[in-house]
């Protein structure tokens, strides 16, 4: 079937979640830094880290934690 099968969502201070069609959502709590200087590029970095972990063959849960 055509269409979106997976959705990766950043939830700010609540962490992130991965929704996969036909499966329970995978949630990852936020991991807070001691000091935040600038959040520019944080979303791009999150998505890239998830993609790298996915290409490396990690499980979806591990990918979300890695990101």
Task: Explain the overall architecture.
There is one protein chain. This protein has a three-stranded antiparallel β-sheet, covered by helices on one side. The longest helix is centred in the last third of the chain and has 14 residues, at 42-55. The protein contains two helices and three strands. 6% of the residues are buried. Strand 2 (16-20) and strand 3 form a beta hairpin. Helix 1 (42-55) runs antiparallel to helix 2. With 67 residues, it is of the alpha+beta class. The chain has one domain (6-31, 41-66).
**Sheet bearing the most strands, described?**
3 strands, antiparallel
Rg, Cα atoms, Å: 13 Å
Residue fraction in strands? 15-25%
Mean pLDDT: 94
Q: What's the domain count?
A: 1
* End-to-end C-alpha gap: 28 Å
* Total number of helices: 2
Strand order of the largest sheet: 1-2-3
Query: Uncertain spans, ≥5 residues at pLDDT below 50?
Result: none
Q: Find the structural class using helix and strand composition.
A: alpha+beta
Helix content: 25-40%
Order of helices and strands: EEEHH
Question: Strand tally, please?
Answer: 3
Tell me the overall shape.
globular
